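User: Can you help me understand a structure? I only have the sequence.
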Amino acid sequence: MSTYKIEDNIDNIEVKEAKTVIPRTVVKTYTDETVESHAGKCGGLRNLREIPIYTDDNYEFWYLVKKPSKNVLQAIAYEKEKGDKKNDPNTINEIQKIMMGCVLEGDIQAFENDGSIYVALCKEIGKLATTASSTLKN
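Assistant: Let's start by predicting it. Here is the structure, written out as tokens:
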């Protein structure tokens, strides 16, 4: 039989503050029917992606985007060649405008007025151009 000693030492009790959990506000301005409609115009559902963007003020904005097509990638390449300097702001702006043309649905006003949403969306659209892989077979 074991004996346990219980010590009451109030000075060593740690009091933790309870954190208030604020529910996330989801902003999704389109329906499943809208997605199906765009799928018919974009070569099927495999070419569409839903991208959630999370903000620091507890919002979750959803965007429906199409994967960049060959024409979009060619336009981006053309803009890169056209730029006089490597990081020409005008060239970067044009490339971003072309990329944002892939956004089909979502709160457009949010990304136009909040640069952090805009940047996050541009990054995610850029990733879509490199989702396929290949292997060389002999």
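Now, to help you interpret it: Residues 68 and 129 are 6 Å apart (CA to CA). The mean pLDDT is 82. Let me know which part you'd like to focus on.
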